[in-house]
Amino acid sequence: xxxxxFLTHSIGAQPEDVKLILCMFSCFGASVDNxxxxxxxxxxxxxxxxxLDVAVSEGLLDKADDQYCFGHDRIQExxxxxxxxxxxxxxxxxxxxxxxxFTSEKEDDSILLTAVNQLNLAGPExxxxxxxxxxxxxxxxxA
Length: 143
Fold this sequence. Notes:
The protein is mainly alpha-helical.
């Protein structure tokens, strides 16, 4: 499909940090609110907003209210498909585990639900240690 190839090429032409953030961001779906981004920045100990803002200036993302969203669902799809299946599983799992310690910080359940969704998207094959099974199970019960 020409559109998919064009979008994959457009994303591939971005600096590495922007490509990485687009792939990372695609794991969360069409949009991510600022609370999740700020929590991920704390959990991963890295700035994400600067790369997101570059993607906004390139027209790949939009920023509206308190969230970033892909300019089109095909952009999200292209970024997601740039990763192989096993990498996607690992990314979903690592983002879910990174959010897990912050699940009780917010008064609403958005971080808990996002963490659980990421862990469930990763699938059981992403679990690397038996102790992580307990964490995943407990978070699913809370959700």
